[in-house]
Write a structure and sequence with these properties.
32% of the residues lie in helices and 20% in strands. With 336 residues, the chain is an alpha/beta fold. The strands form three sheets. Strands 2, 3, 4, 5, 6, 7, 8, 10, 11 and 12 form a ten-stranded mixed β-sheet that branches. It has a four-stranded parallel β-sheet with strand order 13-16-14-15, sandwiched between helices. A two-stranded parallel ribbon has the order 1-9. A hairpin with a 2-residue loop joins strand 10 (182-187) and strand 11. Helix 1 (8-20) packs across helix 5 (126-134). The structure holds threonylcarbamoyladenylate (TXA) and magnesium ion. Magnesium ion binds next to loops.
């Protein structure tokens, strides 16, 4: 099977037809592309796990067309929790926010990997919304990459990741945010950020006390190694030139935040600049695509420049650290 990339109204109709038959298709969202299947059809959900090579212990996000569908997939602990969720939904949906709530018993256990909580979100992408409007069921959709690999931010990225495993990819252009949704557990009035993303803790703090992230690894998706390139990736916290000169590698690639100095550029086999103007939102939107290109370049190591950890910079650095985690020399300092 080789995935076809389809677009426009006909593409939407085809995607809907596949989903009604219990097949899985890749759909664009404003964060990253998702691999979608009928959340109420365990066979379709199983196909998602299979195509991604994802362990059955790692739960999926359920995508709704609007917050009015929440009662079909989630339960509320109290009227005050309901009110808090309604406020969050009014402020951030449709958009890049995922909420963790108590699971509705009718939702298949496979979706939530057997746990009693469910992750829900309403995406802002018009094509994903159009698909949902034509269906009478919500869609489970994790990012459309092989498990643990770099998330796709274009239809072509999805084809490179899952082309042989799925029939159809709906073309929706490059993803606006380029970084997965912020995941927030809503518990006892507190908001706990389980995964940083485009909606920042500053934005959330208007809707509840933002609890400090706990140290416990809550889901396999929050394992230290994730979003991993094949090549070794080292994060540069100090002067780029020092790092590149100190490296024994002949062909370094550089993932730069802003445009580096010409002398640095000369030393690099491959270069990606996330945002010439130093804009963190733009950097986030380009991050995965740039990482993917450097991973495919002729370089033998990727140096990644650390970004300021403010706003969405928190989410970018979270992904960068996970991408570097498997690297053998990630913690080597220049002075060792
Ligand atoms: O932006 C996004 O959220 C994208 C688009 C496609 O919607 N989706 C996405 O899904 O990033 P995925 O599966 O790649 O990442 C979802 C993360 C995983 O780390 C999973 O373990 C966690 O959410 N998760 C899902 N359900 C959960 C639950 N009930 N409790 C805690 N974590 C959960
Ligand atoms: Mg993912």
């Amino acid at each position: 099977m080789s995935a076809r990339i389809v677009s426009g109204g006909e593409g939407v109709d085809e995607a809907v037809a596949f989903l009604r038959r219990g097949e899985v298709v890749a759909l664009p969202t404003e964060t990253v592309y998702g691999l979608a299947g009928d959340a109420f059809n365990p066979l379709a959900v199983a196909r998602i796990f299979e195509a991604k090579g994802r362990p059955l212990t790692d739960p999926l996000i359920v995508h709704l067309p609007e917050s009015g569908w929440l009662d079909r997939v989630a339960l509320f602990d109290s009227a005050s929790q309901r009110a808090q969720v309604d406020q969050l939904a009014a402020a951030f949906w449709p958009g890049p926010l995922t909420l963790i709530l108590k699971k509705h018993p009718d939702l298949p256990d496979l979706v939530t990997a057997g746990i009693q909580d469910v992750a829900v979100r309403v995406t802002a992408h018009p094509l994903f919304q159009e698909v949902l409007r034509q269906l009478n069921f919500p869609l489970s959709a994790p990012s459309a990459n092989r498990f643990g690999k770099i998330s796709p931010t274009s239809a072509e990225d999805v084809r490179n990741e899952l082309g042989g495993m799925i029939p159809l990819i709906l073309e929706g252009g490059p993803c606006e945010h380029g970084m997965e949704s912020t995941i927030v557990a809503v518990k006892g009035g507190d908001l706990e950020i389980l995964r940083p993303g485009p909606i920042t803790s500053e934005q959330l703090s208007e809707y509840g006390h933002v609890a400090p992230p706990s140290e416990v690894v809550k889901t396999p998706g929050s394992l230290p190694s994730h979003y991993a390139p094949k090549k070794e990736l080292q994060i540069i916290e100090s002067d780029i030139m020092d790092w590149i000169s100190a490296s024994a590698r002949k062909n370094p690639a550089l993932l730069a935040f802003r445009s580096p100095m010409p002398a640095v550029i000369e030393q690099c086999t491959a270069l990606e600049v996330l945002s010439c103007s130093g804009d963190l939102r733009e950097a986030a939107a380009h991050f995965y695509g740039a990482l993917r290109r450097l991973d495919q370049s002729k370089s033998d190591i990727i140096f990644a420049e650390a970004l300021p950890e403010v706003g969405i910079g928190v989410a970018i650095m979270d992904r960068m650290r996970r991408a570097s985690h498997g690297s053998r020399h990630a913690s080597v300092s220049l002075h060792e």
